[in-house]
C-alpha cells in the first residue's frame, strides 16, 4: 500500500507537465482571485435562491452534508449524525463556524458541532481537502467551514420567509422562518426553527424505539456600517434540543444546549494591496446531559453530563495584487472540557459510584498561518501555505489527575506540543479543463477522549476505552488531484483522488491486562499509536444535460483504508453509486428521481464490532412548484424517500441500526 501511495504521488506531480498545454486558453482578469480558481466542494443551504434545485429544502444540516461526495455521516439514531471526511474519523477534521472553533461536550460523540446549528443559521458549507484545509491545526483529512447567513446593507427594506414541513414516517414537524431588515447603514437578521419527531419506522414498518427528538434553534445577526471602510458585526446562536433518543446506544440525551456568540470588525480599504482585514472575538458554551431514565429494565441507572466552554479570537488579513494573493491568519482559543458519570446504586444502603470520564482538561492553542498564491500566467496558479500551532493541555481537576495516574504514575498536569503543517497546490484552468494538484503535511494531537478519556464504553465493540496522555503527534503526508473537464458542451466530468499516509495513527487497541469497568464491557482498549495507516478516496461524477431543463447526474465513490499490523480501518465505506435525473422548469415545476446503491461491506473491521453487510439500493423522488402570490414567491415541494420501503443498514450505522423506511414529506416556504 505504501508503494502505491508513493507511485501515485509521483504520478500526480508528473500530470501537471502532461496537461500543460492540452486545452484552449481562458480569459484572464486581474481581479481573478485565488478562491475563483480553486476546486472546492460547496454545499448551498436552503432556504435561498436555489432551493427548488435542492432535494429537500427543510432537511437537517446533516442531510445536506451527506450529499457531499467526500462526506460520510455516522449515525447513532435520527439526530446528530457525525461527519467523516474522505473516510477518516471526525477527530481528523476541523469544523469552524465563520472561523470560530466550537468543541463538543459528549464522551460518546453524540453531539457533533453541526448538531448545534440549523439551516436557518447558514448560507453554505465549504469542504476543503487536506492541502487546502490548513487554516487550523489538526486538519489531517481537511475541514468543513460553515458560513453564517448574515444580513446585507441596501435600501430600506423588510423581508423574510416562513417555513413549514412535515414527514410522515416519524411525524417530523418543522416550523421556522426569518426576518431581515436592511438599510444603508444598519442591517439585522433574525431566524428560528423548531423540529419535533417521534420514533421512526424502518423498512417494512418495524419501529425503531428511542429515535425521537425535539429541537429549537434561534439566531440573530446585527451589522453596522461605520463608514465606507469599516463594519462591525455581532452574531448569536442559541440551540436547545430535548428528549433525544439514540437507539444504537445504551443511553439517551435529556438535554443538549449550545450558546454561541461573536463580535467582529472588518476593514476594507478602497485602494492599496490590503483587500480586507477581519478580526473576531467569540465565546461558546455547550452543555450535554446523557441519562437512561426512559429506558426500561436498566440494572443501574446512570447520568453522564458533559460541558465544553471555548473562548477565542482570530485576525485575518487578505492582500491581493495582479500577480499574487496573500493570506495571514492568526488565531487562538481556550477550551475547558469536563465530563462525569454517576452510577446510582439500586440499594439505598450502598453509595453511588462517581468518576470523571473527562478529567477536567484545559486546552489552549495559538496558531499562525501564512498562505501565498502566485499567478504564473492567465491559466496557472501556484499556492504554498505554512502554519504552526502551540497547544497546551492541562488537567486542572485533582481527582481526574489522580484517576489517570493509576495507569500513568508519572503523569504531569501539563503537556505542550507544537503542530506544524505545510502544503503546496498547483492549479490550472483552461476553457475546458480545470484541475488542482496538491501535496500536504499535517499533524494533530490526540483528542480529549484519545488522550484523557477514562473508561468510555463503546456499545459497538463492547469495550471500555482508556485515554493515553503520552501519545505522539499523528503525522500525515497526503496528495490530491481534483479536476473538472468539459467533455462536451452538455457533458461535464468532475473527479477527485485523495491519498493519505498517516504515521503514528491513533487507534484503540485491546489490552488483556486491564479490567473492564462497565457492566456490559467484554474488555478494555487503550488508545495507541500504530506505525502507520494508508487510505485512498476516489470520486468521479458525470453530469449530462440531456435537453434543456433535463439533467442526469451520476457519481461513483470508492474508499480503501488499512493500518499496519491491524488490518482494515473501521467505518470505511464500500463502493457506492448515486444517480439522479432532474427536470427543472423555473416557471412551472421541478421533478427529481434518485437511485442510491452501495456494494456489500466486505472490507470490515471485526475488532471494532463490524461485520459483513449486504449491498442495497433505494429510490427517492420529488416534485416542486414555485408559485407567485401577489408578487411573493411560494415554494411547495413534496417527495418520498426510500420509495420501495427497503429494510437495510449500512457501514455508517452504529450497531447496525436500520435506516428509515418509506418517508413522504412536504416542504412549504413563503418568501415576503
From TrEMBL:
Extent of the signal sequence: 1-26
Main location group: membrane
GO function terms (MF aspect): siderophore uptake transmembrane transporter activity
Its membrane topology: Multi-pass membrane protein
GO CC, one annotated term: cell outer membrane
Location(s), subcellular: Cell outer membrane
Keywords: Cell outer membrane, Membrane, Signal, Transmembrane, Transmembrane beta strand, Transport
Keyword GTP-binding found: no
One GO process term, biological-process aspect: siderophore transmembrane transport
UniProt cross-references to InterPro entries, sorted A to Z: Beta-barrel_TonB_sf, TonB-dep_rcpt-like
Name of this chain's protein: TonB-dependent receptor
Native source species: Candidatus Sphingobacterium stercoripullorum
